[in-house]
Amino acid sequence: MAVEATDGNFDELVLKADKPVIVDFWAEWCGPCRMVGPIVEEVGAEYDGKVLVAKVDVDINPGITAKFGIRNIPTILFFKNGVVANKQVGAVPKSTIVSKLEPLL
Predict the structure, then answer these.
(1) Range of the domain at 85
(2) Burial class of residue 13, CB neighbours in 10 A (0-12, 13-18, 19+)
């Protein structure tokens, strides 16, 4: 189950997390985001307890979106120990997301 990350709770939720975090930057109006969203949720469920999945709505969280230079969505950032360890822009299959997550575990 993904948690909602916002400009207000991002640092506490993501940067201070004690496990890897997948952050899905998305928007309601974005077609590819609606394709990737369920895949990210599925990966989160499969790695439950090992990884945190957070979603950032770029339309209502401009601060965090700008801080990480998100210009295209969907963008998925993979965090480990509070730093961006990997990045994926655009709609991709589940195997691509898993291949970027595995080295962080």
Answers:
(1) 3-104
(2) middle
Catalytically annotated residue among 21, 33, 58, 73: 33
When divided into structural domains, the chain yields a total of: 1
Confirm whether 13 is a catalytic residue. no
Give the active site residue among 30, 51, 56, 73.
30
33 annotated active-site: yes
pLDDT tens digits for range 9-35? 999 999 999 999 999 999 999 999 999
Provide the CATH number for the domain around residue 47. 3.40.30.10
For residues 14-33, b (16+ Cβ closer than 10 Å) or e, as one string?
beebeebbbbbbbeeebeeb
